[in-house]
Amino acid sequence: MTPDLFSTLAPQPARVTLVPLAPGAVLLRQRALAQAEALLAGVAEVTAVAPFRWMSTPNGYRMSVAMTNCGALGWVSDATGYRYAPLDPARDAPWPAMPAAFLELARQAAADAGFPAFEPDACLVNRYAPGARLSLHQDRNEHDFSQPIVSVSLGLPAAFQFGGLRRGDPVTRYLLEHGDVVVWGGPARLRYHGVLALKDGEHAATGACRINLTFRRAGRV
Ligand code: SIN
Ligand code: FE2
Hints:
Number of strands: 15
Order of helices and strands: EEHEEEEEHEEEEEEEE
Low-confidence stretches: none
Strand order of the largest sheet: 1-2-13-10-15-8-3
Strand content: 25-35%
Radius of gyration: 17 Å
Helix content: 10-25%
Bound molecules: succinic acid, fe (ii) ion
CATH superfamily: Alpha-ketoglutarate-dependent dioxygenase AlkB-like
Number of domains: 1
Largest sheet: 7 strands, antiparallel
Mean pLDDT: 95
CATH class: Mainly Beta
Structural class: mainly beta
């Protein structure tokens, strides 16, 4: 190979590295980088049917993160609480199916993290504009906690906080970048986590936002 075959514009091959966060939790850096374009095409397909919207919390605040879902079940929040629903309340129709690229990546990343039998039925699609944040919480609306969470980051980087099993436990901060995947399950399944306010920026793949795909098994296994 001669040096002129390399272009600074050519996409670099992914260098996947595994960062252990806690027993049952791992950050797979760049794990979704090679699939990022296909995943973003999937986001465009999903949001053409079920557009991003800002949901309200049970105490009446509008969430700063815009959300939608795909898969058999979708996570929704309104005045009555948080839950999974088979119908999109904004359209009174089923959520769009999970694009094949989503399902494949979620299964592979879970397997890489030591969860070989992950069968997600829900994918929450989060869009963070600069300033949007997600306060520290547990993912606990799912039917059982035997399956992990697979969380894919695309676009602008975000500061992810990963804590313990109690809200007051110390948190560690990780910068999640385009193509990074975090998986937590088993003893880490109910660990608190959150995302600090997104900083201003512009990303070649997404523009001025961050997209996060959170895959879960929400219904009965
Ligand atoms: C979530 O906890 O649902 C999203 C986490 C993230 O955006 O990285
Ligand atoms: Fe979460």
